[in-house]
Every structure is written in structure tokens, then in C-alpha cells.
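FAQ: What does a ligand-bound record look like?

Like this one, built around 8-OXO-2'-deoxyguanosine-5'-triphosphate:
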Amino acid sequence: MKDTNQNGRKHVHVACAIIEREGLVLSARRSASMNLPLRWEFPGGKIEPGEGREECLKRELVEEMGVEIAVGCPLTPTTHRYPSFDVTLYPYVCSIVSGEITLHEHSAMTWLPPERMLELEWADADLPIILEYQRRKQG
Ligand SMILES: Nc1nc2c([nH]c(=O)n2[C@H]2C[C@H](O)[C@@H](COP(=O)(O)OP(=O)(O)OP(=O)(O)O)O2)c(=O)[nH]1
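The answer part, i.e. the structure of the complex:
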């Protein structure tokens, strides 16, 4: 997918993993040197040319955290306009199938029950995803 739109504005397409374990969800904190510094996000990253979303997620989770994941149910993709670029996030509910998490890029991680996720300072683009996820969990 192209990473600029008709206006020449940067638009990145990002797959992200809502990783569940024993009723808790993994959140990862961006480092101080990344853009959106110290905001919380779901692990994942930009989809490379020719790459599928699930393939991207599996690759990113190995690169960022050293774990193999199983990719499950997709949630609704969401597009957000940041001051300097646009992002479309493609969220998937996932689980870890092997490995122990080692943080290669993030500055912190935490496991939270879904209803407590909004206590963190999230990247703005993630808020609709968290709300949809919480609604699904409330059944
Ligand atoms: N992985 C991930 N990225 C998110 C989320 N929410 C959100 O706005 N983003 C943004 C942050 C980044 O600008 C982009 C993800 O791309 P990336 O992780 O490959 O980018 P990066 O900042 O590490 O690297 P770069 O743009 O400097 O090359 O999407 C999220 O929940 N997960």
C-alpha cells in the first residue's frame, strides 16, 4: 500500500496486536526517542510492500519482543490524523504461542485487565480500538 496520499501527506498502514493472556492484555510503551514518545501502544508496525497484515504482525512481534504469536480475530481498522502524518491501524486479537517477551524497542510493557487500559496514556490513534475491544469484552 502507498505510504503517501494524493496530497503528498505521509500515510502509514500499521498492523497491531492485542495480545491476550489469562484475561489480561499487553500494552507496550514507546521509547523516549521514538515518535509519539512514551505513549502506550499495541506492539506491531508498518506493513511492508507485498506483505500481508498477519505476516507483518508475526514478523514485528519476533523483531520487537522475540515471541511467536497466533493471529486471531480482526477488530475494525481505524484511521487517525496526527499533525505530521496519517495512520491506519489494523488491529488483531492475538496470543503468544512460544517465547518469553524481551523488549527490543519499547521502554516498558504491562499486562492489564481490559477495563483498566485507559489508565495509560495511549497513542491517540488507539482510542477507538480500545473502546471497541472493551465493548466486546463487556459482551
Ligand atoms: N505499532 C503501533 N504503532 C502505532 C500504534 N498507534 C499508533 O499511532 N502507532 C503509530 C506509531 C508509528 O508512527 C507507527 C508505527 O510504525 P513503526 O512502529 O514501524 O514506526 P516507528 O515510529 O517505530 O518507526 P519510524 O516511523 O521512525 O520508522 O504507527 C499502535 O498501537 N501500535
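Follow-up question: can I read anything off the structure? Yes, for example: DSSP finds two helices and eight strands in the chain.
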